[in-house]
Design a protein that fits this description.
Bound molecules: 2-acetamido-2-deoxy-beta-D-glucopyranose
CATH topology of the domain at 130-359: Rossmann fold
Helix content: 25-40%
Shape: globular
Order of helices and strands: HHHHEHHEHEEEEHEHEHEHEE
Largest sheet: 9 strands, mixed
Radius of gyration: 23 Å
Number of strands: 11
Structural class: alpha/beta
CATH architecture of the domain at 130-359: 3-Layer(aba) Sandwich
Number of helices: 11
Amino acid sequence: MSPTASCPSCCCAAKERRLGTGFAFRLCLLSVTLLLCLQLGLRRSWDAAAVAEHKPQLPPSSRRAGKVNEVSSRRQVTYIRSGRRRGAAEPTCCLQGAPRRRKTIRWHIDLQPWASPTPSLSNEALRLLQYISTAQISCDHMNVKDLPGNPDILKRPWSICLDDRFNLVHQIKSKQCRLYSLGLGGDDNQFEISMANSGCEVHRFDPSIKSAHIQEGQRLWYHRLSIDWRDPNPVIAAHKLHAHTKKLGTILNDFGHHKIDILKADMESAEWKILENLILEDIVGQIGQLVFEIHVHWPGFEVSGNDSTVVRYWYSLLKELELRDFRLFHTYKDSSKPQLFLKREAFNASSCYTLSWVNTRWK
Ligand SMILES: *[C@@H]1O[C@H](CO)[C@@H](O)[C@H](O)[C@H]1NC(C)=O
Ligand SMILES: *[C@@H]1O[C@H](CO)[C@@H](O)[C@H](O)[C@H]1NC(C)=O
């Protein structure tokens, strides 16, 4: 597997010959522990190549062409100031360095009981599919085109809830709204542009853009960052391989943002681990509405176990959101994507669903 895997035993054996056995044994245990920790830290980060490998086949027309040209013609600006490295004269938008809050970090989500006394894929799948096809709360106004300045009909069902009883519509009217949009490039930006036109401050995180921060219009920002579910390993970051990868909590801290009114994510199967990270670090409490495209054609990055275990894990993640008073108000099954569930044509499932939740605790 890894080149370091065989090392602990060989260096321990050598030390044991030189030193007394009791002391050598403790020293050995210590070094094995250290090496194991190092190895855990060095786990390979997922990257764009891996994403491409697992993406279901899409018709070429659904991917937008000419994005690069468009992107490079945008105005290039500096978004945050690093303080130490840049001169004070560079244009900036937002202050960096909100005080870092200490939050209790959990290490595991709580797994729900199996769907049936004897674990089976079909019972797990039917429970999950039932769950993601059922709205838990009604929402009467979901259409972005109802907002002022948006005559267009959106191609994709990125539904947000604009009912009076939820805060979002008021935040938009008073131009106090903030949208974070996570993507991997190549998606259409219609939703982001509409939200910016409606008065939201929009931050689009997309590792495929040409410069670190680009401003397009008064309220629309593009950042060359990809969202990860753990901090990049300092060794790898030092080699600049994954320097553009950050956890959402880290970005919030870096930008000095305390809340996100809408978090939209289309992360090609990285959404499961990202969602887990947001739950474990208790970031979801800072989010008003979630609009996620979820993928079920394969387990997703770093999700392991047999098929029933994977489906139970997905379901448990969604139940964690429910426990935090998030309620599904819209679900959409994408019939244009391959109809696959864990590589099978089964359960009348699609490989891709778009789910929208509102945080009913959001003020
Ligand atoms: C999958 O793994 C779980 C836990 O390891 C086990 O309890 C279950 O029986 C397995 N399911 C199948 C269908 O093999
Ligand atoms: C399969 O899903 C479609 C919607 O995608 C639905 O119209 C149809 O009734 C479903 N078929 C069965 C057998 O459940």
